[in-house]
Amino acid sequence: MKTRSYISLIVLLMALLFAGCPADKCPDGEAAVLRNLSGLDGCTWVFELEDGQRLEPVNLHQYELELKDGLEVSIQYTEATDMMSICMAGKMVNITCISKR
What we know:
Blueprint: H1 2-19, E1 30-36, E2 45-49, E3 54-57, E4 72-79, E5 91-100
Parallel strand pairs: 3-5
Antiparallel strand pairs: 1-2, 1-4, 2-3, 4-5
């Protein structure tokens, strides 16, 4: 009887664990494309939004992401108003969420 209770408890815990995992890591993210602007002075990777606006991420290194020109992603970000850029291709942002599309 005890074994049956333990198995039921394990199955219940596993069901709760998998039900709590989001299918999309960044569900409310904004569509963007990763662009390599290293050909421009002081530039590296930027995100290009659907409206053409560019964002310069300051913390992209914190994410395990294969950096590839043209990679389509969903991102959430906050503006980094306390920073300046040599590249000046777009506004500086801190990425708070990123996932491949």
